[in-house]
Design goal:
The protein has about 375 residues and is an alpha+beta fold. It has helices spanning about 10-20, 30-35, 55-70, 75-90, 95-105, 165-170, 225-260, 275-300, 305-335, 345-355, 360-375; strands at about 110-115, 130-135, 135-145, 155-160, 175-180, 190, 205-215, 220, 265, 265-270. The chain is built from eleven helices and ten strands. About 45% of the residues are buried.
Length: about 375
């Protein structure tokens, strides 16, 4: 029942975050700092290292409510959820002491680099390579669509060791390894990618040209492989679902308010089923997506990584679809006003599609479910 009915503690957290977000100005930097002071940013990180001692369940709740108030923080998906989780689970004690308290109190940020120009959704084709040079590592490669590199103190880079053969890559036995790369490291450069997406967090291409890193930059075991990587990727999918649900709720609330107040022929337009029913349907689909997200978060926090992986993918898919539909219906409800800057919904048309595309496309999730869940043969 814990995945169906929120505890009193969770309801109180949801109300507190909602109240905070609605009264805070739309300034990402100050919002981040204030949210961190209240313990929201690091709610999932261990208490022993300055966090709130909660899990992805609590962190996804925070992000959803921030988004529902029109104040989403994209870097919550990256810094505390992906990077913080990976370091908390697999980092050395020195890495935990250096990074976790700072990630929790908002004084430092960490970006995450996995996507490459040629690899796309096929992570087995990652070409960013780490090779040993004495006790150091030399990291070479490129990454694209990395959020917030300009404001992050470091980037957690996914690479592979130089000893992996081409055959291993083709057969899917490629073992990724993760490195913490400080922003000012020689050979590590970034270039902003021009996007039609209007977001406070910018997207970047990274170039790593023989970036020299000390041995302690490696997070976890170089041979642990996908186990370590998915410690971060499953929370990423759950948090993306929270981001999408929050955005969808925000758009829906705007549309409902307008439908109540906008009167044509002496009747509020919300009284007409052609307006009311699509909004009701959008609400239902957002609620269903939230249930799947909560299930995924509970499974992850319980340590069931296999079941959490399946649920996280489904949650991300459901939330992405629900968000796009909610935003589209909100714009349609407002008509011409839905395209004005005054109401601020049109900008969500592009933003809502992010949840269908990143961090994994809806098509790849359908591939995952058809292969892993239903046992159907692969086409690739």
């Amino acid at each position: 029942m814990t995945t169906l009915i929120e505890s009193e503690e969770h309801r109180a957290l949801r109300e507190a975050v909602s109240s905070f977000a609605k009264t805070h100005p739309h300034d990402t930097k100050s919002l981040w700092q204030e949210a961190a002071k209240l313990g929201y940013i690091g709610v999932n990180l261990p208490e022993t290292h300055g966090g709130g001692g909660g899990g992805i369940t609590e962190l996804s709740l925070v992000l959803e409510e921030l988004g529902a108030a029109g104040n989403p923080l994209l870097m919550m998906i990256v810094s505390p959820a992906i990077c913080g989780t990976v370091i908390a689970r697999y980092g050395t004690e020195a890495q935990k002491q250096e990074w976790l308290p700072a990630l929790a109190d908002g004084s430092r940020l960490m970006a995450f680099g996995i996507t490459e120009p040629d690899a796309g959704s096929n992570s087995h084709r990652i070409t960013t390579t780490a090779r040993r040079d004495g006790t150091d590592w030399l990291l070479t490669g490129r990454k694209v669509f990395v959020s917030g590199v300009d404001i992050a103190d470091a980037t957690l880079i996914v690479g592979r060791t130089a000893t992996v053969s081409a055959k291993e890559g083709r057969t899917g036995s490629l073992k990724p390894c993760l490195f913490i790369v400080p922003r000012d490291t020689p050979g590590f450069t970034h270039r902003r990618i021009d996007m039609e997406l209007h977001s406070a967090e910018k997207q970047f291409e990274l170039v790593l040209d023989d970036v020299r890193l000390p041995a302690e930059a490696l997070v976890g075991d170089e041979d642990a492989g996908l186990l370590q990587l998915f410690a971060g990727l499953n929370p990423e999918r759950i948090m993306t679902a929270a981001f999408a649900i929050g955005m969808g709720r925000y758009a829906l609330a705007k549309a409902v308010e307008y439908a109540r107040d906008r009167t044509v022929w002496n009747t509020p337009i919300g009284a007409h089923q052609a307006i009311a029913h699509p909004l009701a349907q959008a609400h239902i689909e957002l609620e269903l997506a939230r249930l799947m997200m909560q299930k995924a978060a509970h499974l992850y926090d319980a340590g069931d990584d296999t079941a959490a992986g399946e649920a996280a993918n489904m949650a991300k898919y459901a939330a992405g679809e629900a968000c796009v539909k909610a935003v589209d219906q909100a714009v349609q409800t407002l008509g011409g006003n839905g395209l004005t800057s005054e109401f601020g919904i049109a900008r969500l048309i592009t933003a809502s599609r992010v949840a269908r595309i990143a961090p994994v496309s809806r098509e790849m999730i359908l591939n995952y479910v058809s292969h892993q869940t239903l046992g159907l043969p692969k086409s690739y």
